[in-house]
Structure formats: structure tokens, C-alpha cells
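Q: Could you fold this chain for me?
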Amino acid sequence: MARVIGPVCKLCRREGEKLFLKGARCLSPKCAIERRAYAPGQHGQSGQFKRGRSSDYSVQLREKQKARRIYGVLERQFRRYFALAQRAKGLTGQVLLQILERRLDNVVYRMGVAQSRPQARQLVQHGHLDVNGKRTDTPAMLVKAGDVVSVHESSRKTAYFKTLVKDSAAPAAPTWLSVDLASLSGRVLHLPSREEMDLSLNEQLIVEYYSRRL
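A: Sure. Below is the predicted structure, expressed as C-alpha cells.
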């Protein structure tokens, strides 16, 4: 699966806000946004290309790019998710975010098993997670209500997961998940609503972006 292998802090700087791509580092003084709160590149600090008002297309593009970068999804896959959301019942933008939240790597991150979505993706790819008792290595797998996500039995013996069980400072899980870190497992209670997604995204801008292109 294709992924970003370069420096990811510049992605946060480009969007002008924290996307939490490096876990605990994003909450420390070492965060790139804290140290260099301007766009990357030779013209980022001077703001040479920020004259005048941004066009509607530019604002819509930036929102789409931000969503892609938060979830670590490439353009072709993101477009497929949008097409899937269009065919589903409900508001397209909210359904799109719901699909992204249902990705297995995101669920692992929301459970507190990983500090960031990239780390969660790596854990899944290395076969450390089970869904309904069956090992899976597909980060893009979409979970559904009632699914149980747990750490594979053999993986629980590793130092990382042993430390995780002892750590009481794990972040609170969203209300659509029931998590028991002591047993390294969680259950999807229901599909997330928009109010249960703590995302600084305007999904309507993403819908407008694709509506003018498709």
C-alpha cells in the first residue's frame, strides 16, 4: 500500500494546524506548528504567495487535502470513498467522514492502542490486530456496528502492548466505541454520528470540491 515516507510535519505546517500525525510529539514543544507556524518551502515564511483572498476552489481543495492527510488516504482511494458516500443514504459529507472513521486503522487509533493513525496502520499491517477473532492486516477494512477489535493473542506478549496495559493515561475513547485496554479490545457500539467525530473539518467544502470536478 502506498504511503507517505517523507517528513510529515510539513503536512501540518501546510494546513496551518496540527493533524496529529506523530503522536505524543504533536503535544510537545517539539511540534513543528509550535516552532515554525508557517507553510513549508522557501516562500512559506514570507507569505509571498498569500496575496488577496483565496478562491473558493482553493478553500475547497485545502479542506479535501486536510481530510486526506488526517486519515492517510491517497487521492484515488479518497475518491472511491466519496463515490461510496454519494450512493449511500444521508448527507454525503457526513457519510464520507463516517466511512473514514470506520477504517480499521482509525478505530485502532481511536481505541488508544496507537498514538497516531500512521502507527495504528503499521500495527495492523504487521498482523497485531484481530477483527471478530480473525487476524487481519488490512488497514482500510471498514468495521461495522457490533464488530470486536482486539490485539492478537501472541502480540500481547510484546513489550509495547505490555506497557500499554499498564499505562493509565490512555486518551478517552469516543462514545461510539466501548474500549477495555486491560484486555486490549474494543467493540463498535454503533456507527459514529457527526457530533461524535472531533474533527476540525468542513465536509461540505469537500462535497463542493468533488461536485465541480465529477
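A (continued): The beta strands are 129-131, 134-136, 148-151, 177-180, 185-188.
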